[in-house]
Amino acid sequence: MSPHETVGTEVTTALAIVKTLILILGTIITYYAFKAYRRTRSSALGALALGFGAITVGSFLAGVATDILQVPLALGVLIESLLVLVGFVIIAYSLYTR
Prior knowledge:
elongated, single chain, 3 helices, 83% helix, 0% strand, mainly alpha
């Protein structure tokens, strides 16, 4: 049983496209933040890269969990939300660290 049975194929396809774009853009942003960290060795930039990475991984894992592993949609959303929360906490920390 698909977790997306209650929505149409168009919505499922659009969600897969949006999640893929989030993964691509999140990976690019994380890469550039990490590259800046490597160049400057600034702990703030390292934390920033880690925060963006957590958000990107959260989005990816939610898609994998619901679409491939067939976990309930609510659990997939919870996984994503927790990792986005962790990512934002790390990003907020990166704004205050030296």
